[in-house]
Amino acid sequence: MAVKLIHTLAWAFFAACIFAMPIASWAGRHHLAGLLAMLVLVEVIILALNEWTCPLTAVAARYTEDRESNFDIYLPVWLARYNKHLFGPLYVAALIYAGVNWATSGSSGNA
């Protein structure tokens, strides 16, 4: 299903952004870490405006009666079920790390 693949690719992109934020900050690429944080923030706003559900879930729901946690994405059931519980704190931790690292680095960083 194309929607399921697109949803999985979008999820992978945002998960990669979350993991890349502290790495970019550690490497002194504070502007890049900030850009990654902003990209994820846009996704968080979209989720918040959509009652904490990805808009692609509604699209996928039109094509199947399945409502397992991963019916709309190619992830293991446990990860699809607890995705926000896992990646929410990871995002906050990455933001804190990047913010503290930027604040204590003494430079504005590179793009």
How would you portray this structure in words?
By secondary structure, the protein is mainly alpha-helical. It is built from 4 helices and no strands. It has helices at 2-26, 30-49, 55-61, 77-105. It is elongated, with a radius of gyration of 16 Å.
Offer a few descriptive terms.
0% strand, single chain, elongated, 111 residues, mainly alpha
Q: First CA to last CA: what distance? A: 37 Å
Helices and strands, in order, run as HHHH
Poorly predicted parts: none
Number of strands: 0
Enumerate how many helices there are, as a single number.
Answer: 4
The biggest beta sheet reads: none
Class based on secondary structure composition and strand pairing: mainly alpha
From the alpha-carbon coordinates, what is the Rg to the nearest angstrom?
Answer: 16 Å
Shape: elongated
Helix content: over 70%
The overall average pLDDT, rounded, is 94
Determine the oligomeric state from the structure. single chain
Percent of sequence in beta strands: under 5%
